[in-house]
Amino acid sequence: MNTAYLILLVLIVLIFLFIYYISTRVWFVVDKKNQELKSSSESPNNEKVADDTRRDFLSLSTITIGGIGTAAFIWPFLKSMNPAEDTLALGSTEVDISSIEEGQSITVKWRGKPVFIRRRTKKEIDEANKVNIQSLPDPAQDTDRVQKPEWLILVGVCTHLGCVPLGQKISDKKGEYNGWYCPCHGSHYDTSGRIRKGPAPDNLAVPPYKFLNDNIVKIG
Ligand code: FES
Question: For the domain with range 89-219, which CATH number is right: 1.10.10.10, 3.40.50.300, 2.102.10.10, 3.40.50.720?
């Protein structure tokens, strides 16, 4: 249940409770007045007062029922605004990274896109850090692209025209910078997934992710 949904729900309940409180108060007043009317039946204004109180009660009863009806009417719409469980599941994915050895990569799917998870070697980390970022087409520090130096997590979609770059398999061509190579038009990415050569304008994107523990990373 998202926050907006919860706030709307609380508002509806509060409105309902408020209307319920007002209508019960009026009911007590009406009851009291009826008692008084019974005990002083000779008053000339009795009939008018009884009519007024009856009208007040009917108005508030109508409002109360209307409030309940509105809440019942809005409820399905609010429910439909909430993402379905399967949609939420697609929005994030949890990956067990415990079996990935140093120097290995895996590819997982996240929102229909390939995501590269690479456990980098010390050499790859050092290569990524020694680059003068001013020389890069899309300057970015390696430390700003990772949460833990050994784990590099990237959306595996070339930023030129959307091909999936090579470099995940040991036998793949990795390009001139030992990272990933897009064979479609020849873009070379380095060990931080930054574009170094070719027509791609931007670095490979880093998706939102967090480590749930040492073995599980949640992407999305
Ligand atoms: S799509 Fe990758 S270089 Fe063109």
Answer: 2.102.10.10
Q: Which segment, 39-43, 48-52, 75-79, 211-215, is predicted with the most confidence on average?
A: 211-215
Question: For a pocket test of ligand 1, which of 163, 189, 196 has the largest count of ligand atoms closer than 8 A to its C-beta?
Answer: 163
Contacts of 85-88 spanning 24+ positions with Cβ under 8 A: none
> Which positions ≥6 away from 136 have C-beta within 8 Å?
194, 195, 196
Q: Tell me: the pLDDT tens digits for 83-103?
A: 565 555 568 999 999 999 999
- Which protein residues touch ligand 1 with a CB less than 6 Å away? 158, 160-163, 182, 184-185, 187, 198-200
160/8 Cα distance (integer angstroms): 43
Under a CB-based contact definition with an 8 Å cutoff, are residues 22 and 59 in contact? no
Supply the residue whose CA is at minimum distance from atom 3 of ligand 1: 185
Ligand 1: centre distance to CA 96 (Å):
30
